[in-house]
Amino acid sequence: HYQAAITFTSHSDPTLFNVRWVADIAKEFGKLGAHSICIKDMAGIASPALMKAWVSEIKDAVPELPVVIHAHYTTGFSPITYLMAIEAGASAVDCGISTLSGRSGHPAMEVFNQVLADLGYDLGWDPVKALEGMKETADVYREYHPRYEFCEMKMAGSVDYRVFTQGIPGGQISIMRNELVKNKLGHLFDKVIEQIQRVRTQAGGVALVTPTSEHVARQAIVNAMNGQSETTDKSPLWPGYSEMLRGVMGKPPGEMQVDLQLRALREWTDATVKKLQVTDDVKNAVSQKVNQIVDYLWSLSFPIQEKQILDELVQRIRQCRELNGRDSFIANQKYQFDERIKQFEKHVAFCF
């Protein structure tokens, strides 16, 4: 079974990752032979109305493909989001057994077994008998829970709404918190959380899902350890974050911070030259030449980068026009799509 995943993410510019973009991606997955599509909301930041819009667009684009929803509980949205998605046509939702649910996990399986049965949905099994099996499974973990209590996510309450604005995946936030505490850096947790989106934007607004979410978080930790609230020219670059800046993980939807991108390329070439099995004099000479070549190639790449940016803007203009004026959650946002289209068109006209 080939299940294609679309990562749910948000951005300060709502024209990025818009619902028409989602529909276009779903169509491409259909052409590639996908058997189903999973919307992966790894941070639990999808509001119920927006998830309903995503599911509706996907079902309109590829009605023959089942849609599965995967979301975490961290923001508190996911139970309502699941119900709205099911109403819009989703075929399945990912849940966790009750003793492993909530917080940064998934909504409880027992709850949805009961709720969906009460609403008249055919689950394909006897809800009463299924609940008995779920209780047995939950009791197994309850018995062994004390052995693993040390690695539980410590939260002030079962919901952390900061994740809604920062978009940290549920599976990552608990691990990161425990690692910081283990290394006696727990006091930096809030400072790391607060700069996730800034560090992400500097790398082109990548979707926060493995492995990019890990690299963004690691860079935020490095920044916090050095007393910085974002990545600066004084911040050491985490290796994975450097790879993102160098394009090793593909082209992000937004624009990267140019000075950081060029710095990552230079540092990588310098490190590569240092590995040469030659004398230091030769290394120094080669390093200078290589940096000159990097700067030259960088200048030559600008037209290519600009063409990619223009292609992306033209695509988003089309998507925005299709969205604008429609009776949907997206079109009714206070963000003015007309104004954004004008900005895009001015940029495209200026470049030509």
Structure description:
This protein is mainly α and 352 residues long. It has helices at 19-31, 48-61, 78-87, 109-118, 127-148, 162-166, 170-182, 189-202, 212-225, 239-245, 258-274, 280-323, 337-351, and strands at residues 3-7, 36-41, 67-71, 92-93. The chain has a four-stranded parallel β-sheet with strand order 1-2-3-4, with helices on one face. The longest helix has 44 residues, at 280-323. The mean pLDDT is 81. One of its GO terms (biological process) is gluconeogenesis. One of its GO terms (molecular function) is pyruvate carboxylase activity.
Task: Pick out its properties.
four-stranded parallel β-sheet; 13 helices; 352 residues; 56% helix; mainly alpha; 3 domains
The string of secondary-structure elements, in order, is EHEHEHEHHHHHHHHHH
Please state roughly what percent of the residues sit in beta strands, choosing from under 5%, 5-15%, 15-25%, 25-35%, 35-45% or over 45%: 5-15%
Number of β-strand runs: 4
Structural class: mainly alpha
Low-confidence stretches: none
CATH architecture descriptor of the largest domain: Alpha-Beta Barrel
Shape: globular
Question: What's the gyration radius in Å?
Answer: 23 Å
Widest sheet: strand order?
1-2-3-4
- At CATH level 3, the topology of the largest domain is TIM Barrel
Helix content: 55-70%
CATH superfamily of the largest domain: Aldolase class I
Mean pLDDT: 81
Count every helix, treating DSSP H or I runs of 4 or more residues as helices: 13
GO molecular function, one term: pyruvate carboxylase activity
GO cellular component, one term: cytoplasm
Organism: Reticulomyxa filosa
InterPro entries: Aldolase_TIM, Carboxylase_cons_dom, PCB-like, PYR_CT
